[in-house]
Write a structure and sequence with these properties.
By secondary structure, this protein is an alpha/beta fold. It folds into two domains: 257 residues, 3-Layer(aba) Sandwich (Carbamate kinase), CATH 3.40.1160.10; 137 residues, Gcn5-related N-acetyltransferase (GNAT) (Aminopeptidase). Helices cover 37% and strands 22% of the residues. It is built from 13 helices and 18 strands. The strands form three sheets. The protein has an eight-stranded mixed sheet with strand order 3-4-2-1-5-10-11-9, with helices on both faces. A hairpin with a 2-residue loop joins strand 7 and strand 8. Helix 1 crosses helix 2, helix 3 runs parallel beside helix 4 and helix 6 crosses helix 8.
């Protein structure tokens, strides 16, 4: 796989575009991950009929952008409306061909489909698949057929493109772009849609409290049914607008709703039963710096750890309350919503928190969206949540006085 510096001029143009919606380093990182995968395993893209009718040009252009980056994915039509996929497939094939791509056509019921698609994707073609008269009657059954195809291709992600974008709340809450699911349990919004849905923790309150629009609740139910099926590798599902496909794929914050089975987060009171070497490696890879030896000599207040050591939040006690000392997600797991899972687990146990981050921290915007307030200083930004107004000066002083835990 060529390094980003050796990409074609066309690919450089795409990366420059992605820099306008995120950090170039994020785009290059995700591009590196995607290009390490087998050609057939990058993603499946499902397109709604209304999206084909109204945003065909944008869909085709973004597929062309992906091809410039060496990425190809099957495009599936008719999931929501089996009466119209053929006409949409014809139009999409014509538009892709006009852009210099090589579209192919298949029915979802075709024999040996996964093998044929694998060959075509390795040959840098764009397969267009549609449901035919043999399609299952319900959306859930058709989605299960898509999931089975993804399993055979070992797909890592299923992207659903629809004109309305991501999963949206019935009523957009005033003020901060967050939806309250319960005490200390919030999920952030982006472009008016919920950024992440962890089926382990978020699904039940979203459905039970009827917080979603009716069609979005039905879609979430259908995706939850799909992800409830056992598979060797958990599938991640993104629901977004055709206009935001690249932003959803190549930025940490995304531009739609990421839906996943859920991450198991364990709470530990000390390092005694942990693999400290693995935890140290996680922190070093996340911050791209070597941790000082003294860090693990200080007793923690609490450690929230993803079971496979792909994410961790470490809290220390202070006179001002719980101090979030380290918040880390393995670079290869970023974009899977593990950070949100950690945050929710931590906030369910701690009503008030404060922490600091460097001004150039790549998730500074995410921190700002979760905090009740922040102070921007030259060397550090200090954030707090659930802290009384009178305690804010002491919180800032405490945060600034904390030791630096990484080597220069």
């Amino acid at each position: 796989m060529p390094e980003p510096a050796n990409l074609s001029a066309a690919a450089e143009t795409v990366l420059t575009f992605l820099e306008s919606v995120g950090r170039r380093s994020e785009a290059e990182f995700y591009l590196g991950l995607f290009r390490k995968l087998p050609k057939q395993s990058f993603a499946l893209i499902v397109v709604g009929s209304s999206a084909v009718r109204q945003t065909l040009g944008s869909i085709a252009e973004q597929l062309r952008f992906l091809s410039e980056l060496g990425l190809y994915a099957p495009v599936i039509l008719g999931l929501f409306d089996v009466a119209r996929p053929t006409a949409g497939a014809d139009r999409l094939a014509q538009r892709l061909a006009s852009l210099g791509l090589l579209p192919t056509r298949h029915a979802l019921s075709a024999p040996d489909l996964a093998e044929r698609l694998s060959d075509e994707l390795r040959g840098e073609k764009v397969p267009i698949l549609s449901f035919d008269a043999q399609a299952p009657a319900s959306v859930s059954e058709r989605l299960a057929a898509v999931g089975e195809l993804g399993r055979r291709l070992d797909s890592r992600k299923l992207v659903v493109l629809r004109r309305g974008g991501g999963i949206r709340p019935e009523r957009r809450p005033p003020g901060l772009p967050l939806v309250e699911l319960g005490p200390g349990h919030r999920v952030p919004l982006r472009h008016g849609a919920i950024s992440n849905v962890n089926l382990r923790t978020d699904y039940e309150p979203l459905i039970a409290r009827r917080l979603l629009r009716k069609d979005d609740g039905e879609l979430l139910n259908q995706i939850a049914t799909l992800l409830d099926q056992e598979a060797p590798r958990p599938l991640l599902v993104s629901v977004t607008s055709p206009l935001y496909l690249l932003e959803e794929l190549f930025t940490v914050k995304g531009a739609g709703t990421l839906i996943k089975p859920g991450t198991a987060i364990d709470l530990h009171p000390s390092y005694a039963k942990l693999d400290v070497a693995r935890l140290r490696k996680l922190l070093a890879s996340s911050f791209d710096r070597r941790l000082k030896e003294a860090f693990f000599e200080r007793p923690p207040l609490a450690i929230y750890l993803e079971q496979d050591y792909r994410g961790a939040a470490i809290l220390h006690a202070s006179e001002q309350g719980a101090y979030l000392s380290k918040f880390a997600v393995d670079p290869e797991a970023q974009g899977e919503g593990i950070g949100q899972d950690l945050w929710q687990a931590m906030c369910r146990e701690h009503d008030s928190l404060f922490w600091r981050a460097r001004p150039d921290n790549p998730i500074a915007g995410w921190y700002a969206g979760l905090a009740d307030g922040l102070a921007r200083l030259a060397d550090w930004h200090v954030y707090w949540r659930g802290v009384s107004t009178r305690a804010i000066p002491a919180v800032i002083e405490e945060a600034l006085g904390r030791p630096v835990d990484f080597e220069a």
